[in-house]
Amino acid sequence: MSSNARAGRPSRLTRNLSAKIASVPMMLTAVVIFLGGTVWTVVYSFTSSKLLPRLKFVGLDQYERLWSTPRWLVSIENLAIYGIFSLVFSLVIGFVLAALMDQKIRFENTFRTIFLYPFALSFIVTGLVWQWLLNPEHGIQSAVRAMGWAGFDFDPLYNSSIVIYGILIAALWQGTGLVMCLMLAGLRGIDEDIWKASRVDGIPMWKTYLFVVIPMMRPVFVTTLVIIASGIVRVYDLVVAQTSGGPGIASEVPAKYVYDYMFQAQNLGQGFAASTMMLITVAIIIVPWAYLEFGGGRKRV
Question: PROSITE patterns, from UniProt (predicted)?
Fold first, then answer.
């Protein structure tokens, strides 16, 4: 290539210069607010801050107190139960619904709207709706008993041993529709020739899904897992709307623990320590996903 041609081409630094300049405010916002706020939270989690933040370092005292508090341990246990069941049921139910919708059924648009509609509601509204539905005096239990089943019991929100499952029901009702749409988009991207070949070879449909289609949808599953997992870690609205953490502390979750200690107990140091633990949990989820999507998970040409 001649020197004149090289001189006429923009350098790598000046290419798309206007777009780079326009992105500067966004980058500054991300660095100053998000990164700065994160560092500030982590630093002050090692202090004895109460009502107001103060730089009086106490080492790991806040974290030792955090992990010796029964309320925090209950919140972690609840998050683990809620997270595992939410991941499994959301993926299974969402994929099954997407597979059924992918059969070109009649009124597909109507069914898709019905399943996706709960996702348009806020978690507060969803929580209040399911608080009423699971109320033993006015909800499902009362309706079933009115039909003749006098011994029917279904009051998970009032039973401390299963209250987290009542919250799980509301979360699945709201979030499964989004998972279905993501899975349906992935299924619609599968080449039709794969289905034709499997029918010609006499391969059962379930085997085609299990051994061919699902492996091809790996990026969709990974993205869906990240979306679900990030929502699990910060679950708060549903708990507050349905139980406010009760009965007692039976339905406590980490996000509510953070809020209560920072704004009600006025113990910023303890709230920052709990926030940092949640941050670590989110990092454990995001970093492997980023590595798979943008790092070593892809073959370099």
Answer: ABC_TM1 (PS50928)
pLDDT tens digits for 5-20? 455 555 666 666 777 7
Q: 77 to each of 34, 71, 228, how far by Cα in Å?
A: 28, 10, 18
Q: Give the pLDDT confidence of 134-157 residue by residue, as tens digits.
A: 998 889 999 999 998 888 889 899
In this structure, the number of other CB atoms found within 10 A of the CB of residue 149 comes to 11
- The domains found in the chain, sorted by start residue, are 1-44 (no CATH), 60-294 (1.10.3720.10)
Contact 248/163 with Cβ under 8 angstroms? no
For residue 274, CA distances in Å to 216, 234, 253, 256, 261 come to 38, 12, 11, 10, 9
116 within 8 A of 177, measured Cβ to Cβ:
yes
Measure the CA–CA gap between 52 and 262, rounded to whole angstroms: 10
Provide the phi-psi class of 254: left if phi over 0, else alpha when psi is between -120 and 50, else beta.
alpha
**pTM listed for this prediction:** 0.85
Cα–Cα distance for residue pair 128/50, rounded to 1 Å: 33
Distance CA 56, CA 81 (A): 36
